[in-house]
Each structure stands twice: as structure tokens, then as C-alpha cells.
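Anyone able to model this chain together with nicotinamide-adenine-dinucleotide?
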Amino acid sequence: DTALIDGKAFAAGLVARLADEVLDIRAATGLVPGLAVVLVGEDPASAVYVGAKHRQTMAIGMESFVHRLPAATSQAELMALLDRLNGDAAVHGILVQLPLPAHLDAHEVIAAIAPEKDVDGFHVTNAGLLATGQDALVPCTPLGCLMLLRDRLGDLAGLKVVVIGKSNIVGRPMAQLLMHEDCTVTVAHSRTRNLPDLCRAADVIVVAAGCPGLVRGDWIRPGATVIDVGINRIEADGVSRITGDVAFDEAGHAGAITPVPGGVGPMTIACLLSNTLTAFRRRHRIPASALAAE
Ligand code: NAD
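re: yes, here you go
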């Protein structure tokens, strides 16, 4: 019987623990972790994400600073805002919601965030720290996937993992994290040959391709664990629904699988809050609690 990996419940538990920690820290020090989110323009999906981040940040007792800038904001204006946020002692985490309007240079914007406040983990300093096995702020989605895998499988050492997708946001940092767990990692992408055979040999498949139904049932070894990162909006018979990158109906022989929605998705904001608390602790040299070290 396939187990469903309940990311929604796991994320709720993580968020509740973070809320307790914020409360304890406030009581002990009077300090409050703060997260600044910058949204440029009116992309509707981005506005929804930013709203959700704001609500959840407030809900666990952190401070939330949302900066909504017009689509016509210049690169110089955005850089000036980031400069202010870098120097603002009440701000421990800074996130610029992507994608940015086309006239703005996302690489330059990310490079302008102080690495110790880069809670998305996209700055080259954090990417480099992660790649070399040092303390980094780790991108939220792969961090959430790793937490689900460890919760499900315990020690991951020696497992054969295929990561499908090599983006800087998901696939690449996922592969780095799994290498640190001593997995044997294969990174596949749109030019990979014999992807079905690679998958059939895997103990774990993590797919982040943005390709609905890409991973078919006969690609999955019986008992394998499947983490589906894909979020695809499908229109059928006039109704729109969200599906992942796995042909979920064919995966009944998997050992465990994340549903979409309700699997990886809810972990991302929970890990953003976790990263904000991590950045805050490092700034104020407050050691991680035994709870957080789990
Ligand atoms: P991306 O487009 O930047 O990268 C996709 C990667 O998948 C590329 O490396 C590409 O080579 C590979 N790929 C595409 N089609 C493929 C195919 N047919 N076979 C093998 N490889 C293929 O996307 P991304 O930003 O990494 O996001 C991937 C998916 O994850 C999207 O569906 C996105 O919506 C979702 N996502 C979810 C969360 C979340 O759950 N919170 C966060 C980020 C991204």
C-alpha cells in the first residue's frame, strides 16, 4: 500500500514549533525576528504568494514588512530599497518575489541582498556555501523536500536518488543537499537520455520539471519513494486544477509519494519561516534549540 507523505501536516507541525520558539525568544530577549518581502508589479500569482507569506509570518509572531512597488520601478530604486533593508536591524530576512518585470536584472537584485539575510538562499554566497558543505541559507523548496525524506526514510546514506530538473531554485540545491546526506545522486534534465531506466534503478525520485504526468508508473520501482515538486495548472472540461509531475494514478506501487497539492507545496513557506529564524539566530548568536535541531 502506498503511503501518502502529508506535507501539509508536517508543515503545520514545523510552523507550530517555530511559533513556540519565537515566543520563547521574545520572552527571553525582547527581540523579534523580522522578514521583509519585496513585490514588484502586479503578477497575480506572486501577489497571492506574498499575501500568504505575510499572513504566516505574522501568525507565528514574527514581524512582516511587505514592500509593494509599482511595475515601473527602476533597477536603481529597487537596489536602494535593498540597501536600506540590508542595513535595517529589525529585518533579519529579505526576499524578493520572483519573477521580476522584464526590465529588471534578477541576478543583480539577488546579488544585492546581504547573504546573511538571503532567506531564499539564491545568493551566490549561499549557493557556494551549500556546494562546499558549509552553513548556508538553503533554498526553501529543496530544504522542505529533504525534511520530508528524512522524516519518511531516516538515514538516507547510500540511497540511489534521481533528481529530475537542474534549476537553481530546486533541482541543483536538492542534489547538493542529498550529496551531503551521502546519497548517490543522478541529476536528470530535459536532455537526459533513458530517463525511464534511470528512474527504475532509483530508491528515491525527486521530480521538479514543471511537466504534468512526466513520471509514469512503470518508471517507479516498487517500494520507491517519490517526491513530486511540480505545480502545474491544468484546464479540463472548463475547470482548472493543480497537478504534479507524476502520473499519480499509476503510482500505486510506490512505497510513499507526496500528493499535489498537499505535499511539497506547504513545506516551502514553512521553510522560509525556518530560514528567517535561522538568520535571526545567527545575527544575535542565539543557539538553535534542541527542538529546532531535530
Ligand atoms: P525550471 O523550469 O526552472 O526547471 C525545470 C527543469 O526541469 C530544467 O532543468 C529542465 O531541464 C527539466 N525538465 C523540463 N522538462 C523535462 C522533461 N520532460 N524531462 C526531464 N527534465 C525536464 O523549473 P523550477 O523552477 O525548477 O520548477 C520546477 C517545477 O517545480 C515547476 O512545476 C514549479 O511550479 C514547481 N515548483 C514548486 C515549488 C513548491 O512546491 N513550492 C517551488 C518551486 C517550483
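Residues 75 and 104 are 6 Å apart (CA to CA).
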